[in-house]
Request: fold
Amino acid sequence: MSPVSRRDFTRLIALGGSSAFISTRAFADQRASLEELGYSAAPMRPAPQQADEKFWTEVRSRFLVPRDLAFINSANLCPTSLPVIEAMERNLRMYEASPSPDVRSGLLRGREDARKLLAEALRVTPEEIVLVRNTTEGNNFVSSGVPLGPGDEVIVWADNHPSNLNAWNVKAKRFGFTVVMVPVPPTHPGTEGYVDLFAKAFTPRTKLMAISHVSSNSGDLLPATELCKLARDRGALSLVDGAQTFGMLDLDLGAMQPDFYTGSMHKWPCGPKEKGMFYVNKAVHDRIQPSVVGVYGGAVGISRQFEAEGQRDDASMAAVVEALNFQGTIGRAAIEKRSRWLATHFMDELGKLNGVKFWTHSDPARRAAIVIFQPGSLDPRKLGAALTAKHKIVATVRAGQDRPGIRLSPHFFNTLEDVDRTVAAIKGYMASGV
Reply:
């Protein structure tokens, strides 16, 4: 589905004359050239019940990542799919050829279409969805917008992303509330273990709990549903940072019932950069205020207040539709199954190498698609550099004392060959050194 209708496009031709036609023709030539190289922006088909490597290779052709590059770094930044790139370029050409109210109105309708698709994917309502710039902005809407002051306490997890932890500490000094830190356990303690760990931090002064759904430092998958219930039962609000789950897990926020949930389009959803999702449970719309007050807000629900931030990049925001349709067509359950399977295959194969120490739990129920390991006595920095320079393998290097090693985060665009040659390269270096 195009975020700009055929009628809008026809109107643009009338307004912009031949310049719009020339731009469109050049774009068609570019697509033909890409297809000659083995790439495709054609719509995907749903994943079959037993999707094989041929199907996932077909998915890979929708990304510009070269075939000889194993990009296994989705926890940091994902490539954008070709259908989304085409939508962004198409929208931008139309906008720049005629930056008129008519064209902008068409793009703003695309924003509302994206909101509806997000709500459908997350099993919530459009009135609860705000399109933000990224996870960090959504988290900061909470830390700045929920009334907190002296005598109030906020529980945070020590393994939250630094941008989340830093924001709470800075605002605690500004507004006078207290931050209570829940420590990181040596290993995933299971659902009951995590609930017990957080339960110990609650007091009658606790107003909010802020957690990460999946830790980018260990790969731990937290029992978010149970922790949100814990906060609710104690009369506190809950914020779940979904930077490492939105676009990878087949999320059901209606069942999880967080008060706030955040995510970025530039990670696992493989969408436009500087676009994100901020969910606000309708039950708490009256308990948070916008920290930016302006114009051009969304059309429904709480987006009217929280998207009123002045001029935004309407062209790429409308392209969020294509990113959601791309994953939605393949099937979010199939994407989750594939990504988890690739992570498990990594753990199975790396586990055969003497000296490998996992920081990620071996139980698939306690992790998602992040695998962090220490490669024996090898320097992770040297190993990471060698993997990239000599083998065209991109992963994250974790230096320092806190769970040092390599972080691998495969996604549905990765192939089995990506995994196997990565393991083979690591095996070689562990045998001979870097």
Remarks:
- The chain is about 45% helix and 15% strand.
- Residues 112-327 form a domain with the Aspartate Aminotransferase; domain 2 fold (CATH 3.40.640.10).
- The longest helix spans residues 101-122.
- Residues 1-23 have pLDDT under 50 and may be disordered.
